[in-house]
Fold each of these.
Amino acid sequence: MARMEPSTEQVPATARILMVDDDPGILDVVSDFLGKHGYLVETAGDAREMEQALERGPVDLIVLDVMLPGEDGLSIARRLSGEGPPIIMLSAMGEDTDRIVGLELGADDYLAKPCNPRELLARVRAVLRRAEQRGQANAIGAGCEFAGWRLDLVRRELRSPPGVAVNLSSGEFSLLRAFVERPQRVLTRDQLLDFARGPDSDAFDRAIDVQISRLRRKLDDGGGGTDLIRTIRNEGYMFTAKVKRT
């Protein structure tokens, strides 16, 4: 049932995209549109077909519907978080709480259905661009140290001062990376959104505050002994530690 949609325009394929949705009409429209813009798009109708597609070869991005038969999109995002390719979630449920849940489970972006294919194309380009930028940065420096903590940017691994591995969601990792790359500077919520998720994110997103709260809790539980993320009243947040690249 899964199929490959080749580009119909004379443009190079920039990435392999796996779209998972149980609506054949949406699969046809979106895969054709993305294909015409140079992407190789493979489609799947549920988690089983998605796994079969991933077994055939790696993909650069998954566009994942929330409401799927069998295992739903949120469960899939949780399972693939930190190990699979970037994920853009699509859902008819566009409330802030639904979007926050999706981002916290590891999705890199979240778009409400029905969506304009051109907006989805812009989100795809933004997520792939951030993934490429992370890869380029990883080639320059493998990690950093701060207040006894060690952050490996290639393995996406955080270790506490006692050496214990701390699990981070995709959103928490992106946020921590934004902080360690700009230590001891006041960063507004809008800046953090741009640094962590790119300029295509919504200008106002409560998920940033939720992720900062959870990231703080993990840093506190890790035995750092310091307030590494400080709230600057009416301005934003500051990462207080000195950061050493390794």
Amino acid sequence: MEHSTVGAGADSTVVDAGGNEPVATSVAAVLAVKNLHRAKSRLAATLSTAFEGDDPVARGSLVLAMFLDTVDALRGAGISRLVVVSPDDEVLAAARRSGMRGLSESPHRAPADAGLNSAFVEGARWAREAWPESTGLMYVQADLPAATSTSVAAVLRAAGEHRSSFVTDRDGSGTVLLHGTGTGVPAPRFGPGSAAAHRAAGAVELDPAGREWADLRTDVDTAADLGVARELGLGPHTVAALRHL
């Protein structure tokens, strides 16, 4: 089963608990994408087995496609304030073609996870300056090809009840989304053990039992993750990219 579910479209909104002001249109989302041909080393290793070899160009196209499907899910939930931080010109060009803001990532000599978090912070700084009226800020992983706008909208409703909150990945140790409101936006702590790190920083775990939002929780680091996402239903960009693999 391969399909895209993008909800009511880019002009849809999520209404707050009081049924008054739109929530999604006041939320800014920040994503970070590494260099396409160097990204997803674990995925490269498992793709070599699953697809009889790893082509860095084809894998880069897959990484870009997953990013674009993630953006579609956010947009379908009504989020229009989107910024991506990346060192890759192809990512930045694709972002700008889709109407997003693309920021060239500052050079980092820190470990990969520190670089990812630094990129998130760069994007958040720009978002606050560009959209000071935003009431919420989200850091979102860019490899969620099965994510649907329905799940994103549900998370926004749940997140609105807390100053800071997060959603874990499928195994519960990582983080796919971190949300904060007002001055409650926590510092991003993505990387191994990020769920525990965000929890320790005071962020509230949404749906701690992990019963909801399977599509949103499925970030793709291995071919097995990609298989799970495929069962849930992939977005059209990822479906097209997989044809080349």
